[in-house]
Specification:
Layout: E1 7-11, E2 15-20, E3 24-30, E4 33-36, E5 42-45, H1 47-50, E6 60-63, E7 66-67, E8 70-71, H2 74-89, E9 98-102, H3 109-121, E10 126-130, H4 132-139, E11 150-155, E12 160-166, E13 169-176, H5 180-195, E14 197-198, H6 201-211, E15 222-229, E16 235-241, H7 242-248, H8 250-265, H9 269-278, E17 280-283, H10 292-300, E18 304-306, H11 313-323, H12 325-328, E19 332-335
Parallel strand pairs: 1-9, 9-10, 11-17, 17-18
Antiparallel strand pairs: 1-2, 2-3, 4-5, 4-6, 7-8, 10-19, 11-12, 12-13, 14-15, 15-16
Helix pairs in contact: 2-3, 4-11, 5-6
Length: 336
């Protein structure tokens, strides 16, 4: 990959997305690391490691070093981030680029400082942080500079950031531990409870994407999946329907809608009226769940829209901030 200048980075729970200045998205890889269990020697990072989930021999484990919006393993997070940044910018000795970085809401101040140090070691001369809801709104082409209320809901794998913005600042917000992973977990629990069928994370995600939905499908869909029968211990092929997946994800879906409702309840009246006029913008990979915008609209009686390319909105917002510092530079938190 050719070396680039300044970059915007979304360090997400499930994916790391990097935007290169004036070039757009140049990297979108799963945030997965495969390593030897005992020696902790890293064997693969990104897509190669993702393919190994559930298929590794006993001595190797494939894992996500960030879980539920927080760092589960800082050493692996650092190695993964360093790997991706060097892959994009090349090994820089003299002309070090700048970076705007958006982190999951659960990362603490000490981890933020250490991640900035990792960025410097990878060849970045200056790292600035951008709040996740602001980055998502910029990437979704929302006009955040106006004295007008707008609402963005960024649905990641492990956490959802809900925020009402005005003049580019977060007025009311909440970060809830709800996201794509929780929908997958709900599917796993449902199949275990109903059919004594054990499936892995990747199978649950495949079911969610292929036939899942936040609203009942007009036409019934189905997918044949193989799991392990918990009674016999043998592999079992089962046909799963879209109605079953809709039923399976009801609890996390209801919790997500209630969290959005709670933020609206705490929003000042004038800004809430603005949100009712403009609607709610959904970003993040979890926003791609079929029918999610319609389900939120039906429940809250507020128009809801899914951004174009929702999974890359945060990284795009970071990159656009670098390209338009005059408009967005004041929203950055400096990390040298």
């Amino acid at each position: 990959m050719a070396a680039v200048s300044d970059i915007g980075i979304d360090l997400g729970t499930s994916n790391v997305v990097i935007y290169a200045r004036n070039r757009g998205i140049v990297l979108d890889e799963p945030a997965v690391v495969a390593l030897e269990r005992d020696s902790r020697v890293i064997r693969a990072i990104g897509m190669e490691a993702y393919r190994m989930i559930g298929r590794t021999p006993s001595g190797i484990v494939a894992m996500r070093p960030l879980r539920e919006g927080a760092v589960a393993d800082f050493e692996l997070t650092s190695s993964m981030l360093h790997h991706f940044v060097v892959q994009v910018i090349g090994k820089r000795m003299f002309s070090r680029p700048r970076a705007v970085l958006s982190l999951p809401s659960g990362i603490n101040e000490n981890e933020k400082r250490n991640i900035s140090a990792v960025m410097f070691e990878a060849g970045v001369r200056r790292t600035q942080l951008l709040d996740r809801p602001v980055a998502a709104a910029i990437g979704a082409d929302m006009n955040i500079n106006e004295v007008y209320g707008s609402m963005v809901v960024d649905i990641g794998a492990g956490m959802t950031d809900i925020a009402v913005l005005s003049t580019g600042r977060v007025v009311v917000s909440d970060a809830v531990k709800l996201g794509g992973d929780h929908f997958d977990d709900a599917i796993i629990r449902y199949l275990r409870r109903k059919y004594n069928l054990l499936v892995g994370e990747r199978t649950a995600e495949e079911l969610k994407i292929a036939i899942g939905g936040a609203m009942p499908r007009r036409e019934q869909m189905y997918l044949d999946v193989t799991g392990r029968n918990l009674i016999s211990g043998l592999p079992k092929l089962m046909r799963i329907t879209s109605d079953e997946i809709f039923e399976a994800i009801d609890d996390p879906l209801t919790a997500l809608i209630e969290a959005i409702h709670a933020v609206l309840e705490h929003t000042p009246a004038e800004l809430a009226a603005d949100v009712f006029d403009a609607g709610i913008m959904l970003t993040g990979g979890g926003a791609q769940l079929t029918g999610l915008a319609d389900a939120i609209t039906t429940a809250l009686k507020v128009d809801c829209h899914v951004a174009d390319n929702p999974q890359t909105c945060v990284a795009t917002g970071c990159g656009r901030t670098l390209e338009n510092l005059a408009d967005y530079g004041r929203y950055l938190n400096d990390r040298r």
